[in-house]
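A.,

Following up on our hallway conversation. Structure tokens first:
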């Protein structure tokens, strides 16, 4: 009777750290927000599991606006309040 109890206890002690590691790798429901200042405007980048899905731009003068992805895969962003206006992402010069 002592051997099964010891086996059960030892297996539980081994499984607890593994379960804790698996819980840390689980995707979170809360977005990661990165705030930075670019000139006279504040930029907040919203990421979910490392995927950039929205950018909030707060200019010094004027009202804030959001840039969201035009489609789920490309890096083309559109303004949420003006969905017909595409934000260019051209490479002018590269070396």
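Then the amino acids I'd put at each of the 95 positions:
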């Amino acid at each position: 009777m002592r051997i099964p109890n010891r086996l059960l206890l030892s297996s539980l002690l081994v499984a607890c750290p593994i379960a804790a590691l698996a819980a840390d790798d689980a995707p979170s429901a809360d977005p990661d927000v990165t705030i930075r200042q670019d000139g006279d405007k504040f930029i907040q980048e919203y990421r979910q599991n490392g995927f950039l899905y929205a950018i909030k731009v707060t200019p010094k003068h004027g009202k804030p606006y959001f840039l969201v992805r035009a489609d789920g895969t490309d890096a083309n962003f559109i303004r949420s309040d003006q969905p017909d206006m595409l934000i260019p992402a051209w490479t002018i010069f590269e070396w």
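The chain has a mean pLDDT of 76. Curious whether your intuition agrees with the design.

B.
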